[in-house]
Prior knowledge:
The protein is of the alpha+beta class. The chain is built from eight helices and 28 strands. The strands form nine sheets. Strands 3, 4, 5, 6, 9, 10 and 11 form a seven-stranded mixed beta sheet that branches. Mean pLDDT is 87; it is low at 1-36 and 472-480.
Amino acid sequence: MEGDGFSESLNQDDQYPSGFSADVASSSGKRRGRPKKEASASKGREYDTDSLANSYLSSFKLDLFDELRRTSGDKEAVASVLLVFDLIRRRLGQLEENNEISLAKRPDLKTGNILMSKGARTNSTKRIGHVPGIEVGDIFFFRMEICLVGLHAPSMAGIDYMSVKVTVDEEPIAVSIVSSGGYDDGGDDGDVLIYTGQGGAKGNGVIADQKLERGNLALEKSMHRGNDVRVIRGVKDPATPNSKIYVYDGLYRIQQSWTEKNAAGFNVFKYKLVREPGQPEAFSLWKSIQLWKDGTSSRPGVILPDLTSGAESRPVALVNDVDCEKGPAHFSYIPHLKYTKPFSTSKPSLGCRCLGGCQQGDSNCPCILKNDGYFPYSSLGVLSTSKPLIFECGDSCSCPPNCRNRLSQAGLKVHLEVFKTRNRGWGLRSWDPIRAAGFICEFAGDIVNRSSFGNENDDYIFDSTRTYEPLAAGRDSSSSENAPFPLTISAKNTGNVSRFMNHSCSPNVFWQPVLCESNHESYFHVAFFATRHIPPMQELTYDYGIPASKPDKARKHCLCGSPKCRGYFY
Length: 570
């Protein structure tokens, strides 16, 4: 890993303050060796983080990556690396919050170090232009993610560069930059970035003129050569204002450079970068969405500002900027699943007495104990680990509605819109970025009797008894074997936003069984979570599954467009 002396703020984990530095390489420049076991915070024993990492690497075959996959990947390789990073990071965070381990670094930095040391990365070869497997508009919540997939190699420096041979000598050229507020960059224009060079800060409050060397020299050389430079923009995370989300904004070219005095009176280098035309929207889309939220600009194509008529805590716009259709067929909006008769259980379930809300590590909380002693969710509403079944607090519990263990009951956490697609009817997407494993919504509707149900014209069915393909995200929770009870829901006449989620053979959403128990009654709910980081305005889709009996007349032609498309769905 290269270091250019520039300390960009790394993104924070779900519960951790900033101020740590990534430690992938030692100060001597040598690779660190095998990850050490972490000290237990409460039980006087060591926790083997190395074995934890190896189990995930083996499960997702990252230990089989050959040199080609490490140096030049594809979409599948990028997805696998990011998935394993996220699973290990969330597990370490959960263990530390439960006082089972004490980490010297934040979980994201620790996880990045482990994967780097094991070669569990891709696109390590530096290159000019786009990186295989990464699309313009993709988002990252941690700087280490960007490093592991080869979008930007340094974990802290804002400028990444490589050497090219010119006649006899070599000279540096820039391949990527990260602009996230570390310096006084000018980035209000969606297609123009005024980037400040690196250096000048010597530590202990000492400031000096920047020098034309290393990253600064590489930017200067790239301006004269005219090569493309990848730009990653750091924007504020709406869920955690002190953190950044990193948006890949595509390819830029440097058109101009100059020096000027900064506020402290020292010389800094400035570079004007202009975005190459013909690329998908990325940072400019974020700016547009912010204007919609602020009310300073109107969202084009809005039919209804709130499809839910106030039933949700956040408005859900109905939008059509494709044709003249005025909206979907009439239905009654309900935010939660309607139960006329709950499932019966032989053993009574004791509710918790956590008046202020359930607390991590509380050995007296029956709800925590049902989840193997852990909170199933982080403080940001993200699944902490994959579990076949999650137990949430029920009606007999004394905890308040905002208890962390009532996540799926608390309604929408992101700003969604129902929109008209070009060829698949109405769909669902979010104005907000969604973290991998972040909660989206539950499936609401009417519970129907499976034995008497035979309406093949109902396109708004959820059936827990169907078979679901293993997800690319590696979570097997979307499986009928994990459902505690057979459950069929129709959202044709009553439902919520989930009824507009279309099918995909490569979905970015998965369903998770959630059970709420009260005395001798059980309420089975279906909660949807993100399989990976989802950028704003990307359609939300899940796999509808395959029924036990597969009549040909029930098959529908699939238009998901995925490279792994089966060609049909039910």
